[in-house]
């Protein structure tokens, strides 16, 4: 693989795992993040990784980032829209409107702007791929997490719309919908729920896994492998799809 790949919010977590997978497959990878220290650490770990600071909620940042990425990569074959924030936990009645708008700004509007500005460069390739990171919460109603669920559902519609619009340009567009992903973030969530509910972390873990067919959290490496597959020649006939990777989850919880 000699693809030129741009991944947003990829200096840590799932994004960095995706970057590692593309580099291992032979791609040239450019990442963005809002944390310079995390970028520096990622570049030390992954030789050749290109990067710049970018806040997905700021159009001015995105307008600077896209040309910088294209110049550094020498073109663009794959865009992975990974940037997103979790947002508040509250009922619709009680949620802070400012926090609602922040989630929409980063997760949905930011992804729209990155993609909008990347499309002309993707069109210059014989074939290209856009991947949009949605969520289990975008497929189902998500109690107490409405901003996140609404944003992630919007991303599914965006992916499906783009797939139709860009098909004649041989650009494939798919949404990936992970469930609960293993790592420090989910451990922090479990700790918070345990404290709030007066239960043990293991009680909360069992409760979260009870809605899944396979009783384990999703391995970030599997999400990365899915990205590489979808944007490879092996995925050349897949577009306009929402691909769950959630161990058979039946709802968002």
From TrEMBL:
CDD domains in the cross-refs: SDR_c
PROSITE patterns, per the entry: ADH_SHORT (PS00061)
Signal peptide limits: none
Gene3D superfamilies for this protein: NAD(P)-binding Rossmann-like Domain (3.40.50.720)
GO annotation (BP), single: monocarboxylic acid metabolic process
Pfam family, one: adh_short_C2
PANTHER family to which the protein is assigned, alphabetical: 3-OXOACYL-(ACYL-CARRIER-PROTEIN) REDUCTASE (PTHR42879), 3-OXOACYL-[ACYL-CARRIER-PROTEIN] REDUCTASE FABG (PTHR42879:SF2)
Family under the similarity heading: Belongs to the short-chain dehydrogenases/reductases (SDR) family.
Name this protein carries in UniProt: 3-oxoacyl-[acyl-carrier-protein] reductase
Source organism of the structure: Bordetella genomosp. 12
